[in-house]
Write a structure and sequence with these properties.
Length: 125
């Protein structure tokens, strides 16, 4: 599979900051696991592709463990993981969707940041 839109979209970066809200876009998959008590910090769409940023008052390792357990339960297949400084990035797929899920500490180190960007995939010829 490849990403449908060839323009790269960085997690947590909106192409038009005037469209950033704290409301999860309707196009965000309802079955993507959400950490209980996490607060939406920013939500937006880039070319119809939803992105949501949350903060959680939990240890980063707890959030990573949550996603390792809950993603497969919700039917999302973990394609790859990458350890990052004190956190992790997941790439997961379900049907024709690819999600990038980044988890790490905020700048103050007091909260855990959760970034999710969803893209449509198309079969490679």
């Amino acid at each position: 599979m490849t990403v449908e839109n060839s323009k790269p979209v960085a997690l947590g970066v909106a192409s038009d900051s005037s469209k950033i809200t704290n409301v999860i876009p309707q196009s965000f998959p309802t079955d993507f696991p959400k950490v209980s008590g996490a607060e939406v910090e920013a939500a937006f769409e880039n070319d119809g592709q939803p992105n949501v940023d949350w903060t959680a008052n939990m240890d980063t390792s707890e959030v990573v463990s949550f996603f390792k357990m809950e993603l497969p339960k919700s039917g999302w297949k973990i394609s790859s993981t990458k350890d990052i400084a004190g956190g992790m990035v997941f790439e997961v797929t379900k049907g024709d969707l690819i999600a990038q899920n980044g988890i790490g500490k905020d700048q103050e180190g007091s909260k855990t940041m959760i970034f999710v960007g969803i893209q449509k995939a198309v079969p490679t010829p």
